[in-house]
Amino acid sequence: MPAPDTQTLPLEAALRAELPRIADEEGRIPPERDLAARFGVGRTRLRRALAALEGDGLLFRRHGLGTFTVPPPVPGTGLRSLARSVTPGDVMEVRMEVEPALAALAAERATAEDARALRDLMANTLTARSPEGYEIADAIFHFRIAELARNPLFLRVYDQIRSIREQSDWAAWRGDRLDAERIRELGQQHQALVDHISAHDSAGAARAMEGHLLSIAHRMRRRR
C-alpha cells in the first residue's frame, strides 16, 4: 500500500469536517474551483483529497451532476423515462415481488366491510364485457388491495408501478389478448384472492396473488 500523502491528509480531514456544512439540500458539494478557493489549495491536491473521501464512501460522483455526500439520483429514472425503457416483463418482475406482500397485508388488516367492498370490485372484473372494461376494473381492484395493506410507503411503490404501466403501451400490448374466456379466468383468480383476504388468510392471499401474476406472466412469455 502506498504511503499516505502527508500534504493531502490535513486537507482530507478539513473536507471531512466541512462536508455537512458545504453540501446543499440534495447533498451536492460545491464545484472543484470553489472548493480549491475555499481551502486555498490547488485543484490537483484537492482532487486527491476528494478521491480519498470517495474511496472511504463519504462522497459519490455522478458525471454531469456533480459530487454528493449521499448517493445521487440515477439519471433517467423519472417515470416518463422509465415507461419508455421498461418492458412488460420488467414490470411483471417487480409486481411479483410487491403484490403478493400487499395481498398478505390486506388479508391481515382488511375489515369485514373492506372485504365486502373488495368483493364488489372483484365482481366488476368477472362481468367485464370488453378488454378495455376489464383493464379498468382490474386496475381499480388491484389498487384497492394495495390500499388495504394500509402501508403508505408500500402504496407509493405500487402507485409508481401503476403510473409506469399507464404511461407505457401496456394496455395496448395486453388488450388484444383478453378474450371473454380469459377475462372470466382472470376474474375467477380475483375471486379466489378475495376469498383468502376475507378469511384473513395472509399466506393464502399471497399465494393466490402470486399464482394470478404467474398466469399473466406465462401468457406473456407464450405471446413473445
Automatic annotation (TrEMBL):
Residue ranges constituting the HTH gntR-type domain according to the UniProt record: 5-72
Coiled coil start-end: none
MF terms (GO), sorted A to Z: DNA binding; DNA-binding transcription factor activity
Keywords: DNA-binding, Transcription, Transcription regulation
Gene3D superfamilies linked: GntR ligand-binding domain-like, Winged helix-like DNA-binding domain superfamily/Winged helix DNA-binding domain
Protein name stated in the entry: Transcriptional regulator, GntR family
InterPro entries: GntR_C (IPR011711), TF_FadR/GntR_C (IPR008920), Tscrpt_reg_HTH_GntR (IPR000524), WH-like_DNA-bd_sf (IPR036388), WH_DNA-bd_sf (IPR036390)
Organism: Paracoccus chinensis
